[in-house]
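Intended use. Records like the one below are meant for learning the mapping from a protein sequence to its folded structure. Do not use them to infer anything beyond what is encoded.
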Amino acid sequence: MAVSNSAIGVFDSGIGGLTVAKAITTLLPNERLVYFGDTAHLPYGDKSKDLIKSFSLGIANWLILEKQCKAVVIACNTASAIAYEHLRDKHQGNIPIINVIDPIVEAVVKNDSVKTVGLIATKTTIESGVYQEKLTRRAPNVRVKALATPLLVPMIEEGFSNDKISETVIENYLNDDALKGIDSLILGCTHYPLIRSEIDSFYKGKITLFDSTSIVANKLKTILGNENLLSAKKEIKNKFYVSDFTESFKRSSRTFYKKEVSLKHMPLWD
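Structure written out for the chain above:
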């Protein structure tokens, strides 16, 4: 049985989900987070569906059983697309499982100004068709234009943003014919909020951008509130774990979380 002073579990295939973790910390400062980045197995994008489900189940079990988390946020679009329903069904009636896709779909559906929405994401997320299917089913009058943008994740992880390199890559993708005529754009990867300002600049602020940070944090707040699981007082500090530790991930984590992060090595599959 989940209790209000328990931690919120957040996991991703790497450290991109720290953008979601940061948004949760900002919106819900009383909450304590346990973050797990499966850096030993990234990227999830080139793994089979069965393997992604297996990794996600193992991490969720660790967060729930070992760390006693009161809720779990899948801060990864690929894992959300492939493993969410499996995890939701397994833990139904136990604790809430939140993914990063459904809250964005809900935000798009509620925005009456959206007529043609673009979607940029990893190849696996695009090929899964999950955004396209959910949006078509819930908002049949909204046209969806999708484009895989595989270079953006490695570019961001290598520290290229707000420079000539990132500008060239971003412009190359956003000028693609696949995105012509859009009035809004879904940033379908937890890395992409780090280049949101560059994307907004490309469009001169004329289209609506949807990303998973504040949208997912607000969805989590609503769910915790409905289930009387919001923490009433500030708990002890957040904890961050990775399945494979490298100095480069440690350096990058500050970029994603916007403050110093102490990563601990937790090899769940040893």
